[in-house]
Description:
The chain is of the alpha+beta class. Helices cover 15% and strands 33% of the residues. It contains four helices and 14 strands. Strands 1, 2, 4, 5, 7, 8 and 11 form a seven-stranded mixed beta sheet that branches. A four-stranded antiparallel beta sheet has the order 10-9-13-14, with no helix packed on it. Strands 6-3-12 form a three-stranded antiparallel beta sheet. The longest helix has 11 residues, at 152-162. It is globular, with a radius of gyration of 16 Å. The mean pLDDT is 95. Zinc ion is lined by residues 5, 7, 54, 56, 85, 172, 174-175.
Amino acid sequence: MKLICIGRNYTDHIEELENEKPTDPVVFLKPDTSILLKKQPFFIPDFSNDIHHEVEVLVKIKKVGKYIEQKFAHKYYDEISLGIDFTARDLQSSLKKKGLPWEKAKAFDGAAVIGKWIPKEEFSNVDNIDFHLEKNEEIVQQGNTKLMLWKIDELIEYVSKYFTLKIGDVIFTGTPAGVGSVKPDDILTGYISDKQLFSIKIK
Ligand code: ZN
């Protein structure tokens, strides 16, 4: 399975990183080896001094598809969760400056946190999901899927032009404002509404 990640999908996060507003979504992949194993801590890798948390709503694909139209996209996923796209910001900045791919900064082992899955039926509208991330019990990132530049169904149409979606693939839908660095002993907890979906210790 693969993780398909969307960058710059919330206007406030774009302003924070001084990026240009894109005409197309930014898309990158993480391999399955980047998934942080259940109940494991996140170990800060030795190649970075600036690991950032990016909390993101996740969508799990339940059906194989290619060139999926937006109007049919809802048939291709049935579970929603929350996760973290850990990013080695120092490394990413130097790669970006050189125009090089981001994988080393985004796709390393443990860089993808996947929370507990919630059936889609439990949401009255997937384009109005409140979520937040707490670091040591203080809210550091907060968002709602209604603020996405590209909504879930639009993202599925877009990414399936390039990649066949397979059962179990996960889409990371982008992060809102408030990304920041982590240090050893921090605890990150992610919530959709008031439901806690993950809790990660940093080491
Ligand atoms: Zn991200």
